[in-house]
Design goal:
Helix 2 packs across helix 5 and helix 6 packs across helix 13. Strands 10-5-12-11 form a four-stranded antiparallel beta sheet, with helices on both faces. It starts with 9 loop residues before the first strand and ends in a 10-residue tail after the last strand. The longest helix is centred in the first third of the chain and has 27 residues. The radius of gyration is 26 Å and the shape is globular. The chain has three domains: 156 residues, Triger factor/SurA peptide-binding fold, CATH 1.10.4030; 99 residues, Chitinase A, domain 3 (Roll); 98 residues, Chitinase A, domain 3 (Roll), CATH 3.10.50.40. It contains 13 helices and 13 strands. The chain is of the alpha+beta class.
Length: 431
């Protein structure tokens, strides 16, 4: 994790009116440093995820800063140990983890604009600044995961754990084991031809002299890239859907493609650079419009499928044959155990609890398309007991045992590494 000691830049701390010069060294771990700017960036991400408002809860925010600093020190210590054992992380895994982190922050903040306000910078800038830290986190997680993999838990240890902590273990939520069949709403041939023709007209404008950047800003319907000239970054293979990726890795450099159809619409693609398994690419996206007639047609298809389902085996067979959810269809549409209080697809969570066990739902519309739901089992919530919640309690006891082992281990390792923590002049958050 390479860091530049002489890093000078201005960064607004959350909602602060005054720019703060972040050029202090928060800590030194052997020959590596932890910058105050990185500590603040990490703390801002935590604040967004944990809904901590620095103005309303300045002490909580200060604790996040201290947690972030110590976490970064531990991370560097673990990375040094991991380097000895040659623990590596693929770049595509870093990119995916970073994207999940960003989407979680946006979800907690309520919008991309709100997330950028909380983070104190653009999402694209956050990704660039946070990438090294994310790589370090993944290396540390992989290494410590390997160290603790052999730790096991006995029945007696689980029982002792429950006796010790049962008064502090919260009630378990009611959960539903759910399957689904997703049928996406497909635009009509007429709508697809109309969108493709529009893409061809844009391509003609580019060939006549309109720059790709201007065409993207003027026409692209990808909000994440249009204002950046359609640039999607220098990313590894596996980032894009297969139709897009095939063109991205075969098109000649600085050549503009014909309109390419994917599940998102039609793309005009230009490859700017390519090296091994990575490609720098930009695009213009035109989304194919779905009209009410398309929704009605898809609804009828899903309703007809529901009439064929009378048993769980029926549901599983039809999910495998017809579902458009590639991640679940081979498992018979299994979504797993769902707590409706926190499940993110509100259209589904609002109806799951009203579906009787072993009964197929009516078609349900979400942004993904129409769904049919099947509830395999219902697990009642309430105060935990050994008999009812053994699996959960066993996992909690195991996690506690691993956590205790890790805390002892990291404290011993820290004594073998040079660590200097500097007094930190954190920005003052005042009401």
């Amino acid at each position: 994790m390479n860091k530049k000691i002489f890093l000078l830049f201005f960064c607004s701390i959350l909602f602060s009116q005054q720019p703060i010069l972040l050029d202090e060294i928060a800590a030194v771990v052997d020959d590596e440093i932890v910058l105050l700017s990185d500590v603040v960036l990490s703390a801002n991400a935590l604040a967004a995820q944990e809904n901590v408002d620095p103005y309303k809860s300045p002490n909580k925010y200060k604790n996040l800063l201290l947690r972030s600093a110590e976490s970064m020190i531990e991370q560097l210590v673990i990375i040094k140990m991991a380097e000895i054992d040659s623990v590596m992380i693929l770049e595509k895994d870093v990119e995916r983890a970073l994207e999940r982190q960003v989407q979680n922050i946006i979800s907690q903040a309520g919008s991309e604009e709100a997330a950028e306000q909380v983070l104190g910078r653009k999402i694209s800038e956050f990704k660039r600044s946070y990438k090294d830290d994310m790589e370090g986190k993944l290396i540390a997680e992989k290494y410590t995961g390997e160290l603790t993999r052999s730790i096991e838990i006995t029945r007696l240890e689980v029982e002792d754990f429950f006796k010790t902590y049962k008064d502090s273990i919260p009630s378990f939520p009611k959960k539903y084991k759910v399957r689904h069949i997703l049928i996406q709403i497909t635009p009509s041939e007429e709508s697809m031809k109309e969108t493709e023709l529009k893409a061809l007209n844009i391509l003609e404008e580019i060939n006549e002299g309109l720059s790709f950047e201007e065409a993207s800003k003027k026409y692209s319907e990808d909000p994440g890239s249009k204002d950046n000239g359609g640039y999607l970054g220098f990313v590894p293979r596996g980032t894009f859907v297969k139709e897009f990726e095939k063109v991205a890795f075969t098109l000649a450099i600085n050549t503009i493609s014909k309109p390419i159809k994917t599940q998102f619409g039609f793309h005009i693609i230009e490859v700017l650079e390519r090296s091994g398994e990575k490609v720098g690419v930009r695009h213009i996206l035109l989304q194919t419009k779905v009209v009410d007639e398309d929704k009605t047609k898809t609804y009828k298809t899903v309703a007809d499928l529901s009439k064929k389902i009378s048993t769980k085996n029926n549901f599983i067979s039809i999910a495998k044959e017809y579902s458009n959810d590639e991640t679940t269809k081979d498992n018979g549409g299994l979504l797993g155990w769902i707590n409706t209080d926190v499940y993110q697809v509100e259209e589904l969570s609002s109806v799951i609890e009203n579906i009787p066990e072993n009964t197929c739902s009516t078609p349900i519309l979400t942004n993904f398309g129409y769904h049919l739901l099947w509830v395999d089992e219902i697990e009642e919530g309430g105060l935990p007991t050994i008999e009812k919640n053994w699996i959960e309690l066993e996992q909690m006891a195991l996690n506690k045992k691993k956590s205790d082992w890790y805390n002892d281990w990291i404290e011993k390792i820290k004594t073998k590494v040079y660590i200097k923590r500097n007094p930190l002049n954190y920005p003052q958050i005042t009401n």
